[in-house]
Write a structure and sequence with these properties.
This protein is α/β, with parallel strands linked by helices and 354 residues long. The chain has 2 domains: 158 residues, Beta Polymerase, domain 2 (2-Layer Sandwich); 119 residues, no CATH class. 55% of the residues lie in helices and 11% in strands. The chain contains 12 helices and 8 strands. The radius of gyration is 32 Å and the shape is elongated. It starts with 8 loop residues before the first helix and ends in a 9-residue tail after the last helix. The model has no long low-confidence stretch (mean pLDDT 87).
Length: 354
């Protein structure tokens, strides 16, 4: 049976003030949420979730029953409106906080950084809490900022009743503390790994831009950076000139497995692959396109002809050609037909298919 809340005269007066203020609180919750969401979007900060709420009558009555005497008026209750922001990484909590400090007035005496409490079982409660007010005035509201893992852990604690009225045996308290410590470590390590990977990408981009291609291993990230140098543009223009075709952009990332299958290990290998095969790729394109009226060419055409030529020159034959078509187009029997046609068209070219 649900416990009936009993309020004294002061508590009842506060509840009456709350009911009169409720429409204002609803509008405040929406305004605070919208202002913060737009500010985060403007700065390119994407979070996993945002939510807002107005405290319910039931929740407020329970709070006033326990400590209503500490509030002189309803304005002293700082969490009537709550906004919560959930981020992916711990460092993003601080970024959200910086935005909040710019767009809201912060009550620093009432705000608390629970991340600095360092309690053994506090992981799920390690939110950064700001008590805020809109720049245009009005009641205060609470802004909670935490990571996704902190939020999940807090939900688990609430669901299991760990922070409820029943005293949990020490052995279970210890298990909760151990799990909380593990999750806190994971949270920190995700942020650290993100910074490490960001620094690595910057190093790769610097090496690529400086032409130190032999120092850059071939990978999805490095190949994407390499494509920013437009290494296939010259050959694409030569091929497009056959029919005065227009070139339209497409992704060349599907070709990465093909290049890896050739044993190319660095971006330097890719550059040599282009230099050594461009003339033959142009000849293959000529024989393939000269008898057509194709006037639109994808930006991957140069890379495709380079790959086809490489297979032909290194004895890959029909199966090697089909592998290329299967990789970039998806596996299909029709790719075998394309491979046969390519073998036939390559027969009279200056380079000799092996």
């Amino acid at each position: 049976m649900e416990k009936k809340v009993k309020l004294d005269a002061h508590g009842m007066a506060l509840m009456e003030q709350y009911r009169e203020l409720r429409p204002t609180l609803e509008q405040l919750a929406k305004n605070a949420y919208d202002q913060l969401r737009h500010a985060l979007l403007d700065k390119g900060i994407y979070v996993t979730a945002m939510e807002h709420r107005v405290k319910t009558e039931k929740s407020l009555m329970g709070k006033l029953e326990l400590k209503g005497a500490k509030y002189k008026s309803i304005d002293d209750v700082t969490d009537l409106v709550g906004v919560r922001v959930i981020t992916f990484y711990t460092d993003e909590v601080d970024k959200v906080a910086a935005i909040a400090k710019r767009i809201f007035d912060i009550d620093w005496k009432e705000s608390v950084d629970k991340r600095k409490l360092h309690q053994l079982d506090s992981f799920g409660y390690n939110s950064l809490h700001y008590i805020c007010r809109l720049k245009e005035g009005g009641p205060r509201f609470e802004l909670q900022m935490r990571t996704a893992l902190q939020h999940v852990w807090s939900t688990i604690e609430h669901d299991t009743g760990y922070k409820g009225d029943v005293r949990i045996p020490r052995e279970y308290q210890r298990q909760f503390s151990r799990l909380a410590g593990m999750l806190e470590l994971i949270d920190d390590e995700f942020s650290r790994l993100r910074l490490v990977l960001t620094d690595y990408r910057r190093q790769i981009m610097s090496l690529v831009q400086n032409g130190q291609l032999d120092d850059v291993p071939l990978s999805a990230g490095s190949f994407r950076s390499y494509l920013e140098l437009h290494p296939f543009d010259r050959l694409n223009r030569r091929i497009a000139a056959v029919n005065q075709a227009e070139i339209f952009p497409v992704s060349m990332m599907p070709f990465l497995p093909v290049l890896e299958s050739f044993g190319l290990e660095t971006l330097g290998d890719v550059q040599r692959f282009i230099d050594e095969n461009s003339d033959d790729a142009h000849q293959l394109a000529l024989s393939h396109l000269a008898l057509t009226d194709l006037d639109i060419l994808s930006s991957s055409a140069a890379l495709q002809y380079l790959c086809l030529v490489y297979v032909l020159k290194h004895g890959g034959g029909r199966e090697g050609l089909k592998f290329i078509y299967d990789t970039i187009n998806g596996e299909s029997d029709a790719n075998g037909v394309l491979a046969d046609l390519m073998l036939e068209q390559a027969g009279g070219l200056p380079f000799k298919p092996v």
